[in-house]
Amino acid sequence: MVQWSLVTAGIGVFAATCGAILGWGVFPWMVHKKVAESVIIKQGTPQYERFLALPQPLLFKVYIFNITNPQKVQEGELPIVKEVGPYVYKQFRKKNVKEFSDDGTSVTYTQQQFYEFDGKASQPLVESDRIVALNMQMNAFLQVFERELTDIFRNFLTKFNRTLDRTPIVRILKRLLDRIRGKRKSVLQIAENDPGLNLLMAQINANLNGVFNSPTSMFVSTTVREYLFEGVRFCINPTGLARAICKQIRDKGTKTIRALDDGSLAFSFFNHKNRTTDGVYEVHTGLRDPEKVLEIEKYDELDSLHVWLNSSTGYPSVCNMINGTDASAYPPFRRPGDSMYIFSADICRSVELYYQRETKYKGIPGFRYVTRGFLNEIGPEYANECFCVDRLVNVTKKKNGCLYSGALDLSECIDAPVILTLPHMLGAAQEYRKLVKGLEPNLKKHETFIEVQHLTGTPLQGGKRVQFNMFLKPINQITLTENLTTSLVPTIWVEEGIALNQEMVNVLKKSLINTLAVLDIVHYTLFIAGIIVAVVSVVIFISQRQKRVAVK
Question: How many CB atoms lie within 10 A of CB 124?
Fold first, then answer.
């Protein structure tokens, strides 16, 4: 009996040792190897099919700021806004692979996006709802015109000839001068004659009716569908100088403005994104280094942007760096405390996501990541003054040209004076929040976050949340703006994200989570049972030995 106790104790120790080796050595290695193989983008694999078309659509939610006091704003009051939404769209993404690199470590593709209104998720809201919102196209035109004129007058001694050749708005200026003076005069002559400049702006003011459909305020009454996708029409049968202005607007090629078949123009926030590609991507396939899978190596055949300011040496600044994935998926093997990047072509920049905590989504464990200060930490004190493009005239900003905390000027990114903030100006400086009424910032509702399954990098739920705003201010000689108080007007905020559906949850559980659970059962059963058997056997051995000693 004593010998059998020693044998069973040995078996217990052996089982516990096997459990420890399997649970903390073999099983993790097997899982790591299996995941590493499964995430590689390679033709003929399930991962490749998921890469070509996301297995479920992303959710694209739009919240619109309805202006409740448009006439009072025209008289000098601050705008009062009321959020309306969400208007929910399903966003489908389909990739068209152009080529793999010779060594198979990168793949180049374009990606089409398709938007489909989800009436059920949007209830009781519908796309035909009417809203009163900022007249984006008119406000942008006036501010761009003002800015380009300011640039011309500020730099005419050194840049006049180059500006004349490359700035479309100058061709309008020439036409205006013809009408005002009967012959063309130089910018230098205009600069020396303030009444001439006033006449120039007065001519623009007189032709706003022909360009923007006889506006009575800086706001427009339209439908949600028109504002977001179908387009708010303007330049309808213009004549004279208004026709020349419309031609220059069309020729400038701004993304959010398109020409219609009848010759008119239409502004919309997202029509240019629907059924179109957003650039050429080259990403890592994960071959040889799974932890780099889907990280963007080049965008539009360049390894850095040419949007923001660069250093005097000509090297790309930190602002122009392209880092991370496109946020549809993430590299595997996440670790607590690490961070990761996403790149968004819509805002022309990369954003860092920081580890926050462990989480669980429908029984699937993962890590939660959030942004931290990517709009609040901008300026020379953060070594990223390259974001301070200083393209806005007569607005609320710092003396060094940077905007106050929580705001980013996208003028160089989307060719329009649009200001990026978090929804409801969450975390933005008081200098901006005091310029509008009706905002209700809420960290839980308005911060960007993502929860990922940390082993595979599969997104579980989350959303990129940003808001688009525009300054509204008086502009010299423009009647519609003469009584305005400078304000930063929110237009819309969007959430682009995912909540893994039950079908994909089941797939992930079947392929990984359940397997991990079984391996854990085997691991701990062997380890704990082995220890119990060993301990019990040793106790029995000692007990039997003591009895034998007592009998003697």
Answer: 6
